[in-house]
Write a structure and sequence with these properties.
Elements lengths: L26 E5 L6 E5 L3 H4 L17 E5 L5 E10 L2 E7 L9 E4 L5 E3 L9
Antiparallel strand pairs: 1-2, 3-4, 3-6, 4-5, 6-7
Length: 125
């Protein structure tokens, strides 16, 4: 497997916002290499799935805090989810976005920073 095969678009609404409770009830996707069968399990099942010689890799990366709440000049609240940085700035998913206009500035709550809507793309970006 190549690392670039792991780079894909994941819609923000599919990203967990809070950990599973209890933690060991988190969903686990199992691929059986012998027959290609896919099985849905939970994390607490992991010990029964591991066999001698298996390699378990722990991912300790952290997600950057990319969700902010902003205020319109009128006081209305807007959620801003920063998706990725581009040469022109950031692609940001804004909700609600229907009444936002190009050139409008939003003030990030609990900060003195503002963001400006430079272009409108699909899906509220």
């Amino acid at each position: 497997m190549r690392r670039d095969e792991l780079n894909y678009e994941l819609p923000p609404e599919l990203i967990a916002q809070t950990p599973a409770n209890p933690r060991d009830s988190a969903r686990l996707l199992v691929l059986h290499r012998s027959d290609g069968r896919i099985e849905h399990r939970v994390f607490r099942d992991l010990p029964e799935l591991l066999r001698p010689g298996d390699c378990l890799v722990r991912n300790v990366t952290r997600v950057i805090p990319a969700r902010f709440f902003c205020r319109r000049p009128t006081g209305g609240r807007v959620e801003a989810l920063f998706l990725r940085e581009t040469d022109a700035g950031w692609r940001v998913l804004l909700r609600p976005s229907a009444r936002l206009k190009v050139g409008q500035r939003l003030t990030i709550e609990n900060a003195r920073e503002t963001i400006e809507l430079r272009d409108r793309l699909e899906r509220g970006e």
